[in-house]
Amino acid sequence: MKVAVDLGTTATGEPAEMDLEELLSTRLLVQGNSGSGKSHLLRRLLEQSAEWVQQAIIDPEGDFVSFSERFGHVVVDADRTPAELARIAARIRQHRASVVLNLEGLDAEVQMQCAAAFLNGLFDADRHVWFPMLIAVDEAQIFAPAIAGEVGDEARRISLGAMTNLMCRGRKRGLAGIIATQRLAKLAKNVAAEASNFLMGRTFLDIDMARAADLLGLERRQAERFRDLEPGHFVALGPALSRRPIPIRIGTVETAGRSGRPVLMALPEMGREAMESLIFTAGADEPAALPEPPRRESVATRELLERVSAPAVAMPAEPQAPPSEEELAERAAAIDAIFAELIADPEAAFRPVPVLYQDFLVHCRLKRVPAGETDMAVFRRRLALARAGIEGEESEEWRTVVERSEALPEDMQGVYLMVARAARDGQPCPEDGALAKAYGSHSPSRGRFLLTYMAERGFIAVETDFRGNRVVTIAGSGWRTQASGGKSYIPGITPRAQRA
Fold first, then answer.
1. Which residues are in the Helicase HerA central domain (predicted)?
2. Does residue 163 surpass a pLDDT of 70?
3. Which of 234, 250, 266 is the last residue of a domain?
C-alpha cells in the first residue's frame, strides 16, 4: 500500500508529498542553519506519518515530548544505564511502541552514550521483531561528528558506530534513519552519504552550500540559491520526494516544541527609578548583600616581574568539611540501590566485570552520587559477595573464608563463596549450571571445571556417597554440603584430590 505523506506545497502550489514506503528503504537527510525550520520540518513529517508507522525520536533538547499527549508516544528519559536503555529498546521493537528518547539536561558526552545504547538496542533486536520503524535524530552532528571535539574518544566512537549502523545497515532490520543537522560539514561523511533523499534548507557558508549542491546534483553557481531560502522553505530531491530538485514549503504542524522562533515583545512600561529598584534590590531568593570584591593591590613593575619569575609554590588545598553521618547514610543507600539494580539484571551474570563497573559509574553519575570510594577492586569484591548471597556477613568464620578466597582468581571467588555458603547452611552443592552462571558462563561443564580447579588446589574436597551423589567440604572450616543429586563424577579430579 502506497502512503503519501503531505509535507506542504511546491512552488507551483501543488501538494508536496513523500512516499512513506520508499522512505523506509532509502533514508532522509535534512540540512539547514539554526532558524531555517529543520525542527518544524521534522515535526510535520513525523505528525503526518504517526498513524502509519512506528517512530522513535532521538531528542537532545526535549522539543518533541509534546508528541506524547497528541500521538501517544512514550517518553523515555535517558537517566538510565546503557544496559537498561538497550533492554527498553528491545521491548520497544517487540511491542511496536512509538517513543521519544528525551536527552534534555545531559551533557554532550552522556547524550552520545545514551543515544548509542538505545540505537544499538533497536539494531540488535531479534529478527522476528524487525518491523518497519522511522528513527528521527535531531541535531545529528552531536551524535555523528565529523571531527573529534570536546567529548572523549570512546563516547565518539560508540556513538558514531551506532549512527553508522543505523544509516548503513538499518534498512534490512526495518530501521529508516531521518537525520537533521545544522551543517553538513559537521556531520560525518559516511553517515550523510547513505541517505538517498534530501531536504536542504537555508545555509550561508560556502562549504555547506557546495556540499548541498553536490548532493542535489546542482552546479556550483546554483549553490547560491540556498542562501536566499526563507525559513520553512527547502529544496527536495530523492526517490521518495522528487526525481529532480524542487523547492517546497513546509505546512503547518499540530504540536509545538518548548523552543520556538523568537518574536518581538513590548518592553515593560516602567520608569527608570522603579527599574533601578528592581535591579539593585535583592529578591526574596537572593542573599541580602553580596560580598565585596577584593581590592586590587598596587604593585610596582619590578616586584610584579619578580613574583612571576619566582618558582611556583604549591598552595595547600582548602580543608573541606567532612560529610555528615546523614549524608554518608544517604550516599550508601543510593549506592546500594544502584548495585542492587545492576545485580537484578538477568544478563549481569554473563557480562564482564569491567563492563558492569562502567555501568555502575554511569548510573552514579546520572544519580549524582560520588563513587570515588568504590574502585574496581572494591566493586569486584562486592560483586563476588553479592553473587554468593553473603553480602553483609560479619562473623569471624566468614571473614576467614573470604580471606582464603583471595588466593583464587578474581572471577572464581564468587563461585567459591557460593559453595561455602551452601556448605555452611547444610544445603546441597549448587548445580553445575548455577556455578557456571556465577562464573559468567552458559556452559554447565564450566561449573564442573571450577570444582576441579578448586579441589586440586586444596580449597575444597569433593566426595561421592554410596548413591553417587556429590558432597563438597570446605577445607579448613568443617563446613560440608548435603549430598547433591547433581554430577557424581567430576572429570579431572584425581581420587587423591577428592579425599583432600
1. 8-76
2. yes
3. 250
